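Aim 2, interim progress. The first record below pairs a target sequence with its structure tokens.
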Amino acid sequence: MAKEIGTLVIFGAGGDLTKRLLLPGLGQLVDSGRSEDFALLGVGQGAMSNAAWRSRVEKSFASSGATGATARALAAKSEYHRADVTSHADLEAILARCTGTPAFYFALPPRVTIAACRALAKVDLPDGTVFGLEKPFGTDLASAAALNRQLVKIIPEQQIHRVDHFLGKSTVLNLLGLRFANRILEPVWNSNNIESVEIVFDEQLGLEGRAGYYDRAGALVDMIQSHLLLVMALVAMEAPSSVGAEDLRGSMAQVLRATSVFGGRAADASRRARYTAGTVKGRKLPSYIREEGVDARNRTETLAEVVLSVNNWRWAGVPFTLRSGKALAAQRKEIIVTFKDVPHLPTGFAGMPGPAALRISLSPDDIRLDLNINGQGDPFTIDRVVLSTEFGAGELEPYGEVLSGMLSNDPTLSVRADEIEECWRIVEPVLAAWKRDAVTLDTYPAGSGGPASWRRSLR
């Protein structure tokens, strides 16, 4: 039985991720009444008084609407500790300040997380200690595998929560409910009826001061290697026997093990680009290489696209295109399942609008299904209509959901070690092709739809 968490320790408490995402999610969770009472300890390298830290916590809580008495009480008693999390002695001092069973959240760059875990291996941690690790997990397949081996030397796998906020409960359950609770969809969810699947996460935001992390990662590692591959696994997996942690994660891992670059040639199945100066929604952006903190020698891409295949009976031959980019004209966060056209239309009908598609939006959460029907006025003309509805909203924002799982030690929404390693394995050939410049680094003006040469499908 899981032990009740007494203290949540946030490593990287002074960072942007903690302020912008982690603390607002925590405030929502606390105000919802779904968590037990615990203490909050922020840890960072920079100097910060307890008063300044508490003010930061209060403001972050308030940004998500968490202004209730429980959230205010947690903020008022929270503390900040300056420490080097890669130092064994400093970690001992942090542990001494914890009450009850600790949960450590690593809101840190991957290299610092790896070093901190090496130091934690020398610390005598209480039974039931829980880890929450922010993506990316490692910097490549070898480092991810090494980190996984290091982690299980410290605590059991079931107490390790690799956080991917794209797997917030509402996203997971919406996709599973849509697929497996509708007999009309599941029988056609295969290569006999589906032409292609696209998972797109295009943003209008630029770098937004994240050069320290993003310029070493790029769009492929930041979005496709983690978030979008896991969403793809939910779209493509076989029905799990339950939505329990092991059944669900096992089905996702099975899909990832079957996934590889489409056609086997990474240079042909991928493309990359980065933005130049332009205007997005009336806001002028400099060229990416002129952004503060960017090193042009890194040749970092801000737009990436990869075509993959899931090599199993259900999906053989179906291209899965994963794309993500920054500073684009339109915000698109959706899954597009395009069905094959009908094999024959009776003679006499005209105006067939082409293959239908099911669009599942990730923000806002809704679905739209194309339907071909007889046209108004002329019944011999086929017109396109769209059926649409919204998914039910989740009780919490994604970070609130993943923190809830971590603090209750429910790993359903966390990513298992083998899933992490499979995600790195899938993108490694692409990273290698890009490193040897086998794929051109294209450019596109900020505020455009991408490079002009990309108007033709990579498939």
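The second target in this work package is listed in the same format:
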Amino acid sequence: MSDILVVGSVAYDTIATPEERKEDLLGGSANYFSLTASLYSKVKVVGVVGDDYRPQDIAILEKRNVDLRGLQKVSGRTFHWEGKYEKDMNEAITLDTQLNVFENFDPQLPEEYKTSKYVFLANIDPDLQHKVLDQIESPKLVGVDTMNFWINSKLDSLRKILKRVDVLLINEGECRELAKTWNTVNAVKHLSEMGPRAVIVKRGEYGFLMYSEGQYFVLPAFPVSKVVDPTGAGDTFAGGFFGYLSKINGNWNLNHVKHACIHGCLLASFTVEDFGLKALQKVDWPEVEARQSDYFKIISYLD
């Protein structure tokens, strides 16, 4: 088992669905990722919060033994995002983004973080992603996420980061936008040519598509009877993915990567069952194993 380093946002979210609206929910990519990955391995977080960040929210990660020495606290307000979902719960509509202290975020890694073997660069400025990688000594596996804002504003920097990573995790719309094609099957092949050994497309209720070493791997999502809030499902997927690979601590192996995709898919199915991080806080390892057993029955084509 090896430690995992995550660099990303720590935030408060306001979320509206067709049925309900919640304010100041604990959110952010680093929180979803670390709460998930900590079910498998030790997680180290690099991020920034303001002086409004609640002590009880720090305690949530401390209960999972997440290492928070890389979490900076500065004067000002914590990053805040507001979004809504309409009848199609697959895509959030952003209503407001307040970067606050995140606007001047400068990721400085503690010395003991620089030897991390598993590194996930969540959805932040690609220039900052480069800065983080420049501080890592010899990572074993590096993954990256991005979004349309960086695709449109910092494409050159993003293309360069793709040459430095092993895995790109991206949602379907952004995959198509980055590859400049509406065909996802062609898009993942094109993105893999930019550098990553594997491209994983997170497809919400439709599961995921992974392309690596000339092979496709496609599976559905775990069926959830009621999707309450899809926010953070993609970062949860990444947490399950990296958590699994860190736990087995093996060298690159396509079968291991496929199993990691399944774990990401399963953990994301917990997240969507409640608002924010509420469902993830309650998940324990026996529940993960039980859901995995159920999932294998669902995807099996033989009696």
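The chain has one domain: 4-299. This observation will shape the mutagenesis plan for the next reporting period.
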